[in-house]
Amino acid sequence: MSLLEIRDLSLHRGTRALIDGMDIRVFEGDFCLLIGPNGAGKSSLLKCILSIIDDYRGQIMIQGRESRSYHARERARMMAYVPQAMDLTFDMEVGAFMELARFAHEDTPGERETLIDDCLTKTDTYRLRGSLMQELSGGERQRVLIAAAIAQQPRILVLDEPTSSLDPNHRAELVQLLASLHLHHRFTILLVTHDWNEFLGLDPKVLAIKEGKVAVTCGAFDLHQHLSSVFGCPFRRLDAGGIPVSFPVVDI
């Protein structure tokens, strides 16, 4: 049985179909990339999966159960979300922020502290435990958000463009962190990105979304041949240490 199954999903706003009959299956241990042009339906799909939007048609099944039937605490134990950015308008230490991630679980104080320390260690953010969230760099904050997400002990980790605002060094560190969570800790990951090349070394399942539909499902080595039709522009394929990467062709 798939961990996440989306059946004939549709979402309309007025006469416009934001999602138009999507079918997706995600299995335990998958690393899935969601790619596609702006406005293709990726953000709407995430909002439906996370039950931020619940007036869709079709079914979103999480471990065989309709997503809308989960209570908030139950859903938090199944799925954790890392947003593209998080603006905090109040002072909060990293340690206190991490404790909020355990709201769905009934821990003793000792159990909670041990688990939080472990998640901070996994993400190389333990040294930031006493720091204020507002004082962190972009890369540090993204790592803490991921630490909080895995502290929920979810079955699925959902990330929305996690590298988009980071410099090259922090991007590489974040990709390495996600690789470790996937390969060594067996997290199932669903990730929206425009920077797919960074993740192709993990041999992901790639789902290309276009005009509210799943246009292509493929692996890393077959992706290049589909990019022009998905994005509407030519791409050039290069070899990066045995990994095929693709870039849009720019005429200058």
From TrEMBL:
Record CDD domains: ABC_Iron-Siderophores_B12_Hemin
The entry's keywords: ATP-binding, Nucleotide-binding, Translocase, Transport
Protein name per Swiss-Prot or TrEMBL: ABC transporter ATP-binding protein
Domain ABC transporter: 4-236
Range of residues in the leader sequence: none
Biological function: Part of the ABC transporter complex HmuTUV involved in hemin import. Responsible for energy coupling to the transport system.
A Pfam family the protein falls into: ABC_tran
Domain of life per record: Bacteria
Molecular function terms from GO: ATP binding; ATP hydrolysis activity
UniProt-listed Gene3D superfamilies: P-loop containing nucleotide triphosphate hydrolases
